[in-house]
């Protein structure tokens, strides 16, 4: 009986993975997301050789060696200009994607990769470390743009039933990018005194490939139809992407979606900040994003080698341990997708931050006892790996998911704008401050991270409700008392509650 009824329903045609769709996904993820991860980890392995280059250059110019403090400052600037660029890049997303289109922005964005790649590649020849610092800023802009535009582009290319699956691809390529930089950073490959300029410059290659190949793939049909009003091109793009000719249903659906979104309007960031009924939701996503970054996850990728050296790991083994951490990260990113879908958000956040907090405390203890037992470095390595796993199941993926669930369509762009800037700015802070922290506090620097994890955990425990399978209005009600507003069921908001949800609520593990 039930089967019969299913049969009679007008069947929505399920999109399939066509060659055009698969290739467009791979090219944009490799050309943009991969680079983003690559540049996170690329400065870790050759840091010693690059610092020697800074010192040498300084001596040649001014006839005296670099002061220790000034070198630390130059180095932490070289690291943290990247997330600072990411901050500005994420602010440029909205104007660019509307002017140039999604594919257009990705193509334009390659400029922000190829130019700094050349700059970093020639920095040693022209004897300038300033060039590296500036180039890191520009390549950061590239990352800030691609972290937002790739998921948007893929989300608009994919048929509904594949959106969730394709949403994982950018994140996967970010972690693969990190791993690739760690592998290339092995001393015998490029992580040595002569290989590093090439290693830094290699980031231009994926950009070049994308620049050459992506023009042959379609622009987002949704962009062509809604923003450009060009139905013919949109239709052609859809036909190529779906592999069939009749795309009327999907064109109609886009028109309908557009109309309902227009009716709902868009909140600006300012009006989002002044919405009383959304105040604690906003505070929650800000604190979760700060917690995600200030918990030090990127310190581990930016400065892994120096952390392992402090932990007493043999100089020659460090590179392999670093690669191992990267591999665990790739693996956990794949696993996290299934875990996140299956379990509640709140539980995972609490567990994740708890594990990270514990990992940092144990690491501090291990670093302090390092001199006493020979096998202590192994404990330290385990602590870092536990930390990476803890971060991958909760703090990395969930803030993004929760942001989607706490705000409805009209407020989401503004909410993501706030979340994105907090994310990049906190990332920048950690990159800048960690080397000084490490020099000043030594083994105790991780206590700060564990304290931040603990604070975030307590906040989530007290304030953040479970949002899985909740409608926007239900979330609003759970926050109503705290926000000091009264939400009446059935006041018109209700009609929109389901339109918020859908397979397009993709999961992106936005930790980096
Ligand atoms: C810079 O190099 C000189 C030797 O040329 C060395 O004495 C000095 O310690 C180095 N400075 C730093 C901060 O490594």
Automatic annotation (TrEMBL):
Catalysed reaction(s)? D-fructose(out) = D-fructose(in)
GO BP annotations listed: D-glucose import; dehydroascorbic acid transport; fructose import across plasma membrane
Q: Name one GO molecular function term.
A: fructose transmembrane transporter activity
Entry's InterPro entries? GLUT (IPR045263), MFS_dom (IPR020846), MFS_sugar_transport-like (IPR005828), MFS_trans_sf (IPR036259), Sugar/inositol_transpt (IPR003663), Sugar_transporter_CS (IPR005829)
Keywords noted in UniProt: Cell membrane, Membrane, Sugar transport, Transmembrane, Transmembrane helix, Transport
Give the family, as the similarity comment puts it: Belongs to the major facilitator superfamily. Sugar transporter (TC 2.A.1.1) family. Glucose transporter subfamily.
Protein name per its UniProtKB record: Solute carrier family 2, facilitated glucose transporter member 5
Species this chain originates from: Echeneis naucrates (Live sharksucker)
Name of encoding gene: slc2a1a
């Amino acid at each position: 009986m039930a089967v019969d009824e299913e049969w009679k329903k007008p069947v929505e045609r399920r999109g399939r993975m066509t060659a055009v769709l698969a290739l467009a996904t791979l090219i944009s993820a490799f050309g943009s997301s991969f680079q983003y991860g690559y540049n996170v980890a690329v400065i870790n392995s050759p840091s010693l050789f690059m610092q020697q280059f800074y010192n040498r250059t300084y001596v040649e110019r001014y006839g005296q060696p670099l002061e220790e403090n000034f070198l630390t400052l130059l180095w932490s600037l070289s690291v943290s200009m990247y997330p600072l660029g990411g901050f500005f890049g994420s602010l440029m997303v909205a104007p660019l994607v509307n002017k140039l289109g999604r594919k257009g922005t990705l193509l334009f964005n390659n400029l922000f990769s190829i130019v700094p790649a050349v700059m970093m590649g020639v920095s040693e020849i022209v004897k300038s470390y300033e060039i590296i610092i500036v180039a890191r800023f520009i390549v950061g802009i590239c990352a800030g743009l691609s972290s937002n535009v790739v998921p948007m582009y893929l989300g608009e290319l994919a048929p509904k039933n594949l959106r969730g699956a394709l949403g994982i691809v950018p994140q996967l390529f970010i972690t693969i990018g990190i791993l690739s930089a760690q592998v290339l950073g092995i001393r015998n490959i490029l992580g040595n005194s002569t290989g590093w300029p090439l290693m830094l410059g290699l980031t231009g290659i994926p950009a070049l490939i994308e620049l050459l190949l992506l023009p042959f793939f379609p622009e987002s049909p949704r962009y062509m139809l809604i923003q450009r009003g060009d139905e013919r091109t949109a239709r052609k793009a859809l036909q190529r992407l779906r592999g069939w000719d009749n795309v009327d249903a999907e064109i109609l659906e886009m028109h309908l979606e557009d109309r309902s979104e227009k009716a709902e309007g868009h909140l600006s960031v300012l009006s989002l900040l002044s919405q009383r009924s959304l105040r604690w939701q906003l505070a929650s996503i800000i604190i979760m994003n700060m917690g995600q970054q200030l918990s030090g996850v990127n310190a581990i990728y930016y400065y892994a080698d120096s952390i392992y050296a402090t932990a007493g790991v043999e100089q020659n083994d460090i590179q392999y341990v670093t690669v191992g951490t990267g591999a665990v990260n790739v693996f956990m990113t794949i696993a996290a997708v299934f875990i996140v879908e299956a379990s509640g958000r709140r539980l995972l956040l609490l567990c994740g931050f708890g594990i990270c907090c514990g990992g940092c405390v144990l690491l501090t203890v291990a670093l302090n006892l390092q001199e006493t037992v020979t096998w202590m470095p192994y404990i330290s390595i385990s602590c870092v790996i536990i930390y990476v796993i803890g971060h991958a199941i909760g703090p990395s993926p969930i803030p993004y998911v929760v942001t989607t669930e706490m705000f409805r369509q009209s407020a989401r762009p503004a909410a993501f704008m706030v979340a994105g800037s907090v994310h990049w700015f906190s990332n920048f802070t950690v990159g800048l401050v960690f080397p000084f922290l490490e020099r000043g506090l030594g083994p105790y620097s991780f206590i700060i991270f564990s304290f931040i994890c603990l604070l975030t955990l307590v906040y989530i425990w007290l304030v953040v409700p479970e949002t899985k399978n909740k409608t926007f209005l239900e979330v609003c009600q759970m926050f109503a008392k705290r926000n000091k507003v009264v939400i009446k069921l059935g006041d018109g908001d209700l009609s929109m509650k389901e339109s918020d949800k859908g397979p397009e609520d993709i999961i992106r593990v936005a930790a980096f």
